[in-house]
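User: Fold this; tokens only.

Assistant: Input:
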Amino acid sequence: TGIVANTMYYYMVSSKFYVYETTKSSYGYGATSSITKDTYEPNETNTDAKELKTTGTTGTTETTGSIYYVKEGVNEIEDVDWYKVKLSARTFLQISIVNVEGLSNAYLDLYNGSTNSVLLGTSYPINNNTDAEAYIYFKISVNKLNMLNKSGKYMIVRGEMTGF
């Protein structure tokens, strides 16, 4: 039978060389998806955050990423994507997260000091409230209430950078 997208699979691994086979590993689990690999991985932590540019034309697509959440019983597999943006003192950058594939009518959680559930396509400010230029970090993750056993691709579209 074929492999079904957004499904949890349990497996064991062993190696075979001619008639010899190694002892099988303990069970592992993984999930499948029809979405291609995110080229910006790994960016699972703020240490690995991908930098977004703040120069250029407003409305520029900064990056296209993928995200998923699969759960079966107590086992969960989730992708989170960290980004950073360098902002001047007391400025903010408007961003929108836009559906590319598989995320229509979805909410993603945007963490920037606190978690906000953001509807795709909605503009959201990334703020630098300090008196000095600084990198501001934010994380995109799935909203587990409406993304169970789903995967998809998104774009980050950059809006205006404004002082306050």
